[in-house]
Design brief:
Layout lengths: L1 H5 L3 H21 L7 E5 L7 H4 L5 E6 L2 H10 L6 E5 L12 E6 L9 H11 E12 L5 H13 L9 H10 L5 E6 L5 E7 L2 H4 L1
Parallel strand pairs: 1-2, 1-4, 2-3, 4-5
Antiparallel strand pairs: 5-7, 6-7
Amino acid sequence: MFWDKVSGVYDVFENAYNGDVYKHTGEIVAGYIGSSDTVLECACGTGAISVHIAPVCKKLVATDFSSKMLRVAEKKCRRYDNIIYRKADITSLKVKDSSFDAVVAGNVIHLLDDPYAALKEFERVCRPGGLIIIPTYVNAGKSSSKMAEKILSIMGVDFKTDFDLFCYKAFFEGAGYEDISYELADGRMPCAIAIIKNNKTERN
C-alpha cells in the first residue's frame, strides 16, 4: 500500500514544503473541539491533526486504513493517554450511530472514489448537533500548489478530485449541507476546513 510505504517520510515532505499550513490546520480544527468531547478522527495519517485534538478533548479515536501510518501517529502522540488507535475503512466505520460529538477527516475527501458515502458515514456516527470537520488541500491556482500536486502524483498519490475553494464549497452544497462554515489555512498549498453542524435529524 502506498500510504504504508510513505509513512516514514510523509511528515518530512509536509513540513519541508507546507509546514505552516500543516500545523495551522490542526490548530484551527482543535479550536472547534470541546473539553468534554469524544472525537472520531478518520484518515488520521501520521497524527498531524491528532496531536492538536488530543490535548483539548476528553477522548480521541484515531483511525486510518494504513497500519504503518497509525504506528507513526501513535509514536507522535505517545504523551497523550486519551487516544485509541484503530484501523478502519472510512466508508464503513464499525461504530454505533451517534457515538461521537465531533468527526474529523483531514485531507482524504479528494482521494475517495465515493466521497459522499464517507459523508453519510460521518453523519451516522456523529451525534445530532455535533460537528463534522473536514480539512482538505485546495488548488489556489498558485504554481507552488500545482507543483506539489504534480510531485505527489508522481509519488503515487491518486487524486480523484482536484478541488479549488469554489468547487469545494459546491461539493458540500451538492450534498445538501446548509449549516456550514469554512476557514482557510493559507500557504503554499492552502487547506480549506469545512465545519458542518450535523443536522441529520432535521434532514433525514
